[in-house]
């Protein structure tokens, strides 16, 4: 099993076009030169939202366009990488009740609401920018001594301004496992109470300190469904910037099939025959009675991978 063997499009948020050029991050001169080169492309993130034009494309600003709107010398700017010789930056704007006026016909929109409409490369870049900006705004103070932090390494770390501390923190990514458990021609799906009516998905949970990924898969499946599983196989991963996860997708075969929910995370869980999944309509048609996760999700990818595998 691998993404390369699939004829379906790659997973959303995995088609990033940028060369991150991580070795240049400590070069402040290069950061400034790139920013003011006339080629800079700036992705605004305001209140966790992105600028989307009426034709459902991300609106990316030039340096001059952004500079007309805000003082870039005192703004949160993160170097994202290079594509087609153009340096890309994320510009983080603090939350306010009124969105900034960019003087263009575009609206600030939550990424979740436009994922399915955006070209894959744009979705990946916006996800990256979003995760970076959210991390900065959540780490304005040192987790060790409480003093203010300042941006460093072209926006890829923050450093404490207390000279007795100088603790450096880095953008965090929270690993979460997501697993399709199968038993022959059926698979195990559950639903959380806050999901859209009728939606069922694969079993997921966060990795805890001191755990291997395989142990997390085993624990989460057992806690949420009571099902014991055999060997765990990795399938694919997906960055999930809501706000800062990486979803690690697995498949596992069931050793036991009795369902006994051990925690309250799921309000229902059951085995679905492959025929039921094949009959599924993603319009959520009530004659089938359940829905699968959207096609942009790794949960759906795992289900489709099994169906077609
Ligand atoms: Zn500190």
> Low-confidence parts lasting 5 or more residues at pLDDT below 50?
1-7
Task: Please outline the major beta sheet.
Answer: 6 strands, mixed
The end-to-end distance, rounded to whole angstroms, is 8 Å
The bound ligands are: zinc ion
The rounded Rg comes to 22 Å
Overall structural class, as computed from helix and strand content, comes to alpha+beta
β-strand percent reads 25-35%
Average predicted local confidence, pLDDT: 91
Order of helices and strands: HEEEHEEEHHEEEEEEHEEEHH
Q: Classify the fold: give the CATH topology of the largest domain.
A: Nucleoside Triphosphate Pyrophosphohydrolase
What is the CATH top level name of the largest domain? Alpha Beta
Helix content: 10-25%
How many domains comprise the coordinates? 2
Q: How many DSSP helices? A: 7
Shape: globular
Number of DSSP strands?
A: 15
Give the CATH architecture of the largest domain: Alpha-Beta Complex
How do you describe this structure in short?
By secondary structure, this protein is an alpha+beta fold.
């Amino acid at each position: 099993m691998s993404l390369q063997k699939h004829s379906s499009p790659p997973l959303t948020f995995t088609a990033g076009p940028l060369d991150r050029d991580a070795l240049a991050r400590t070069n402040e001169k290069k950061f400034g030169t790139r920013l003011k080169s006339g080629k800079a492309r700036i992705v605004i993130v305001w209140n966790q939202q992105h600028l989307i034009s009426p034709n459902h494309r991300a609106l990316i600003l030039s340096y001059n366009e952004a500079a007309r709107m805000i003082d870039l010398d005192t703004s949160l700017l993160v170097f994202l990488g290079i594509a087609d010789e153009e340096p890309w930056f994320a510009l983080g704007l603090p939350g306010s009740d009124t969105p900034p006026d960019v003087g263009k016909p575009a609206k600030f929109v939550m990424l979740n609401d436009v994922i399915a409409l955006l070209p894959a490369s744009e979705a990946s870049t916006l996800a990256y920018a979003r995760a970076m900006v959210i991390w900065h705004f959540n780490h304005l103070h040192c987790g060790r001594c409480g003093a203010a932090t300042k941006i460093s390494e072209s926006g890829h770390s923050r450093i404490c301004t207390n000279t007795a501390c100088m603790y450096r923190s880095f953008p965090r990514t929270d690993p979460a496992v997501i697993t399709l458990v199968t038993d022959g021609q059926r698979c195990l799906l559950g639903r959380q109470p806050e999901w859209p009516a009728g939606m069922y998905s694969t079993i997921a949970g966060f990795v805890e300190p001191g755990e291997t990924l395989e142990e997390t898969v085993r624990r989460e499946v057992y806690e949420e469904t009571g099902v014991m599983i055999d060997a765990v196989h990795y399938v694919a991963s997906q960055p999930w910037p809501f706000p800062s996860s990486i979803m690690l997708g697995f498949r596992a075969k069931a050793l036991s099939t009795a369902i006994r929910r051990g925690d309250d995370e799921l309000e229902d869980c059951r085995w679905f025959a492959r025929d039921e999944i094949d009959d599924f309509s993603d319009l959520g048609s009530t004659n089938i009675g359940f829905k699968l996760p959207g096609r942009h999700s790794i949960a759906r990818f795992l289900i489709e991978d099994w169906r077609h595998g």
